[in-house]
Amino acid sequence: MRPEVGARAGGRLGPKGWVYAGKYSFERYLYTLHRVTGVGLVLYLLLHIYETGLRLRGEVPWEGLMRLFTAPVFKVGEFLVFAGFAFHALNGIRLLLTEFGFFLGRPSQPIYPYSTSVRRHRPLSYVLMFAAAVFIVLGGFGIFS
Amino acid sequence: MRESRFWALSMLAAVVMLVVLTAHMAVMHLSPLVGVSLETTRSFAAVLDRARSGVQTWGYYLLLAAALYHGLYGLRGVILELPVGRAGARAVTVILALVGLIAFGYGAYVVAETARLAASGI
After folding, report:
1. Window 74-133 of A, Cβ < 8 Å to B
2. Which of A17, A56, A100, B103 is most deeply packed, by most CB within 10 A?
3. Which residues of chain B are within 8 Å of residue A55 when distances are taken between CB atoms?
4. How many whole angstroms separate alpha carbon B73 and alpha carbon B8?
């Protein structure tokens, strides 16, 4: 964090730190978004299990529920769930790969200009986030078409 | 079980989900891209049709278990970063485990009943 950023916020960033935290890296924002999408998806999962159970009431209630889900507000919600899934899954692949040591490069002496494992795997981050964006766009076509 | 084993199980659940959840999301949300409307994919007839496949039924059991474990374990990790104390941490673990067991029990019942309905030819 740059000193002036903290000073401007009275020494504490508070909720502002979620969207702007000075010198945080790209991966730090991926970490935040991974958490937000993860918590959102697990809460949705519990609702989804309940909603899926309504099919046991028979065909008419089920078809009625599916018709309700064609309303714009549910379409937007569905898109957010899909986007959250696409991001969480692809960022999760990055986390799995780096957790097991892939794309981090070999350890080296700290000689300027420094090469960190985060910088070494940044191209992977960009590729996976591009793939997430492609999936999110495809999801948008699927859901809103 | 040691904490590292819970974590390893969560990673395994993530790998399982990369396969089964991706397939589920593709079928449920991307079918219009191959010319099948979402209404058709989600119709009662289509639900029963999928439930006739043993592979899909077992895939749903697997997805249910993996998603609940990975999701609730992750949520536990987030909550335990708060200053909840030792007793609080234990309570969070027990509550989330109960939520997971109840949700899995209900979800598995729905999957099994749907398969039974499908097999009965309704």
Report:
1. 78, 82, 85, 89, 92-93, 96, 99
2. B103
3. 44, 47, 110, 114
4. 11
Q: Do A38 and B44 touch (CB under 8 A)?
A: no
Q: Is B35 exposed, middle or buried (0-12, 13-18, 19+ CB in 10 A)?
A: exposed
Most confidently modeled of A38-47, B2-11, B33-42? A38-47
Give the total residue count for chain B. Answer: 122
ipTM of this model? 0.94
pLDDT of residue A5: 47
